[in-house]
Amino acid sequence: MEINANEHDINWEEARKFWAFVSPSKVDPPEIADREWSRGDIDLFVLSEMKKNGLEPEGDASSEVLVRRLFYDLIGLPPPSDEVKRFKEDTDEKKYERLIDSLFDRPEYGEKMASTWLNVARYAEDQAHQVGNNVKFFYPHAHRYREWVIKSYNSDLPYDQFIRLQLAADKIEGISNEDLVALGFLGLGPQYYDRGRLEVKAEEWEDSVDVVSRGFLALTVACARCHDHKYDPISVADYHALAGVFASTQIHKRELANEGGAKTVMHVVKDGKAQDLPIYNRGDVQDKGEVVPRAFLKIL
């Protein structure tokens, strides 16, 4: 999809027809005469393409291979030899499904899945740019967010709620204190030295735009900080409208009193002074263009 350099030249109606911005719809699986290999609709799509290319599916993997694949895929650990033996000797037709359910019930499942999400969230417990012995930008309570992510997977938290809590837990009525730590998705972002300077703040806003758009939208919105996106219908104005949302928040160390006087400390975000940003031409904060209201991406 080709996007012109000027936002006003973007054909928004045409851009919204691109597959990435079209809501998915149910498609009937292809009709195939030999359906014996297939165990579900997805298999029918796969088998159809294989036949178009003159390929035939392989037979089932051995019990030893299956059990190892499940262990590595779901909990990231190799199966003990006794588990392999037990699975191999099990004659129950539902043994594959039962093993999957048993692995879902293990605490290691949440740890395995969280390891992937924490990469998306650029999780860290300190800064990569420590100066001398200065640790003021370290995150000694970051582990609370990591534990929340693990617990979310192990408790089968719905994905839509998983997103809402990480972006706006403090704005959702009835949310427990233990779920406020989900705001670590934003609150554990980088903090740079000399944070009072506009140039430094702009770098931190870009990180928030980037982690949210990549993590939840699979879009590289931060590419539009200096120029309209080269491939996607995302303009410089779009970037600064979204950056204004994060410019209106602050990274915050929040303390909650527990029974007995102990305190729980978490790294989150809180409301700051609401502000709309000007377009910083070519990313230069000294070269200010028109002010754009805080908003979401126009294409969406």
Word description of this protein:
By secondary structure, this protein is mainly alpha-helical. Among the domains are: 47 residues; 155 residues, no CATH class. The strands form two sheets. The chain has a two-stranded antiparallel ribbon. It starts with 11 loop residues before the first helix and ends in an 8-residue tail after the last strand.
| Secondary-structure-derived class | mainly alpha
> What fraction of residues sit in β-strands?
5-15%
**Gross geometry:** globular
Q: How many distinct helices?
A: 12
Give the averaged pLDDT, no decimals: 91
Low-confidence stretches: 1-5
Largest sheet: 2 strands, antiparallel
Radius of gyration: 24 Å
Features:
300 residues; 41% helix; globular; 12 helices; disordered N terminus; mainly alpha; two-stranded antiparallel ribbon
Topology:
Blueprint: H1 12-15, H2 41-52, H3 63-74, H4 81-89, H5 95-104, H6 107-120, H7 143-154, H8 159-168, H9 177-180, H10 184-187, H11 198-217, H12 236-247, E1 249-257, E2 263-271, E3 277-280, E4 288-292
Antiparallel strand pairs: 1-2, 3-4
Helix pairs in contact: 3-4, 3-5, 6-7, 11-12
